[in-house]
Amino acid sequence: MSDDTILGWFAGRTPDAWFIHPVEVNTDRDEIIVTGTLNAPDVGDAGDTARREAERSRIADFREESRARRMEIAAAAERHFERKVSWSIRCGETHHLFTHLSAPAMTRLRMAERRVLDTLIDAGVARSRSEALQWCVKLVGRHEEEWLSDLRKALQDVETVRDRGPGSDG
């Protein structure tokens, strides 16, 4: 199922009054994260501390007030897409990801790769090999985003061509 299909599904189900911009969706094989943007509160000339607190408060209020409807939408999406749904909210400069999936990833590493992870643990960057591996994946993702974006686009193109092939409905 394409990201555009999933985005359209959520755009149709999410109340227009909730967010100041259309929802965004990020997906993988296990989870769909739906991100909405709230209008930032006006704190006048107050400083960064007041702004951050006002944004956190607005997100907390939205979370409580919308909980029942968000859960209904998520339950329907989980049945339809067979993936866990999580919600994420932006408000001004504050971003909060509500309860989300943390999926295990099994891997076999040779000694050289284990040494990298153990160095991160010894340096206090991570508490475990699992956390060190997560740190490495985030670092690669941050520094290789353009390449990863191109690769994801190419995979979507392959999916489109495959869907038009013999035996498909397209």
Structure description:
The chain has 5 helices and 4 strands; from the N terminus they run H-E-E-H-E-E-H-H-H. The protein has 170 residues and is an alpha+beta fold. It has 2 domains: 3-103; 104-170, no CATH class. Helix 3 packs across helix 4 (129-143).
List keywords for this structure.
170 residues, alpha+beta, 2 domains, 4-stranded mixed β-sheet, 5 helices, 4 strands, 54% helix
Mind sketching the topology for me?
Blueprint (H helix, E strand, L loop, with lengths): L2 H11 L10 E4 L3 E8 L9 H34 L2 E8 L2 E4 L13 H12 L6 H15 L1 H19 L7
Parallel strand pairs: 2-3
Antiparallel strand pairs: 1-2, 3-4
Helix pairs in contact: 3-4
Give the ordered list of helices and strands. HEEHEEHHH
Task: Tell me what portion of residues adopts beta-strand conformation.
Answer: 5-15%
Characterize the overall form: globular
Query: What would the average pLDDT be, to the nearest integer?
Result: 91
N→C terminal distance:
14 Å
Q: What Rg, in angstroms, do the CA atoms define?
A: 20 Å
Decide which structural class fits the backbone.
Answer: alpha+beta
Helix content: 40-55%
| Oligomeric form | single chain
